[in-house]
Amino acid sequence: MNRIFGLTRTILYQINYQLSKMTNHQLSILNVSVVIPIKDEVESLPLLLKAISSTLTESKLNYEIICVDDGSSDGSAEFLKEQAQIRTDLKAVILRRNYGQTAAMSAGFHYATAKVIVTLDADLQNDPADIPMLITKLDEGYDLVSGWRQNRQDGALNRLLPSKIANWLIRGATSVYIHDYGCSLKAYRSELVADMNLYGELHRFLPALAYIEGARITEVPVRHHARRFGQSKYGISRTFRVLMDLLTILFMKKFLTRPMHVFGMLGLTSMVSGGGIGIYLTLVKLVFHVDIGNRPLLILAVLLLVTGVQLFCFGLLAELLMRTYHESQGRPIYRVREFVAKNVK
Ligand code: UDP
Ligand code: MG
Q1: Is 105 exposed, middle or buried (0-12, 13-18, 19+ CB in 10 A)?
Q2: I want to staple 114 with a disulfide (CB 3.0 to 4.6 A). Which of 33, 145, 202, 320 is the partner?
Q3: Ligand 1 in contact with 121 (CB < 6 A)?
């Protein structure tokens, strides 16, 4: 009898143990999703995955790696698919074609499930060993921690100089005071990126966009290495695209919810000055009987009036578009950090 009891107890214990293991596994909360955009980086990938998993395991972090293949043609996609079948910590997202780094990151954000998201480049220029430090900083209460590359290992004339100028411009224009906007190694709270729409090359403006959303932002110095395999995917032409994106950001920061203030003001100024010149010319014609048909001022008056009306109408349209932008997505024009009340469930 005793033996039967003993056996039953062992069996029940085993079932309980297995069940608890299962629930533990199901409940295991991910600490961090590492998002990596990849275009033709097949040589770096094995080293990169190894470095990330060893650092994060050492730091006792629960993690997932989300590799987004952005239309590679060197076998990166095949490698990732194969690895994702073997490894449980890797998710491979294969895009249909090359959409660019911003879109690839955006896809990664979509698949990320952890509360903290870390982004980095696949070319080993960023050091995965810096990830825990970023997360520790984020834990201090920030929403975004950006890397600041020390001893940058890039060409002086084609990379460092444009980057210095771009950083200076972006800093001045966006009033987000960090040194290195171009560094991909960043850590975010997931709710921050969840409702951020990225277009163009806007990934480098994520701190600025986050700032518009009211995020707390800081930076930490990180390591930087020279590219070991392959080539950079960008040339000098990137500088101009960055500048154009900067204008978009500037506009969004200042006038996203009130476009009429800028267009209406410009339009009105233009119309009033055009109208003023027009009245002056009419007086000259009617009172002094002087011919005004060949006066350049007449052309200026007409130009100012037409431009003014156009700017004004554009402002109205922009107001409508802005309302559609916010309302169609159920996007409020404010962001709440916390809501505290004693009696509300
Ligand atoms: N990348 C991408 N799609 C592209 C271009 C680049 O996903 O169209 C990835 C690339 O594989 C790398 C990261 O974006 O992981 C940064 O690219 P790169 O190293 O060429 O930029 P750099 O470090 O020279 O600024
Ligand atoms: Mg690089």
Answers
A1: buried
A2: 33
A3: yes
Ligand 1 atom, smallest distance to 37 CA: 7
Please provide the distance, in angstroms rounded to a whole number, between the alpha carbons at the two ends of the chain: 53
- In angstroms, rounded to a whole number, what is the distance separating the alpha carbons of residues 337 and 345? 17
Asked if 203 and 102 touch (Cβ cutoff 8 Å), the reply is yes
In order, the DSSP letters of 209-257 are: HHHHTT--EEEEEE-B----SS--S--TTHHHHHHHHHHHHHHHHHHTT
Structure tokens at 324: 């559609």
In angstroms, the CA 43 to CA 76 distance is 8
Q: Residue 133's closest CA among 206, 207, 200, 186?
A: 186
Within 10 A of 41 (CB to CB), how many other CB atoms are there? 25
Q: What six digits make up the tokens of 195? A: 């409702």
Residue 64: beta bridge partners? 33
50 vs 123: CA distance, rounded Å: 13
Provide the residues around ligand 2 (an ion) whose CB is within 5 A: 121, 123, 125
Asked if residue 233 has its Cβ within 6 Å of ligand 1, the reply is yes
**Ligand 1 contact, 225 CB (< 6 A):** no
**Strand 116-119 and strand 217-222: pairing?**
unpaired
Helix (H, G, I), strand (E, B) or coil at 55: helix
CA distance 209 to 215: 9
Confidence (pTM): 0.79
Q: Which helix (H) or strand (E) holds 135?
A: helix 131-139
| Tokens 């990151």 belong to residue | 105
CA 299 to chain centre: 45
Give 17-74 pLDDT, tens digit per residue.
454 444 334 334 778 999 999 999 999 999 999 999 999 999 999 999 999 999 999 9
Is the Cβ atom of 101 under 6 angstroms away from ligand 1?
Answer: yes
Rounded Cα distance between 182 and 164, Å, is: 10
Q: pLDDT, tens digit, for every residue of 256-268?
A: 788 899 899 999 9
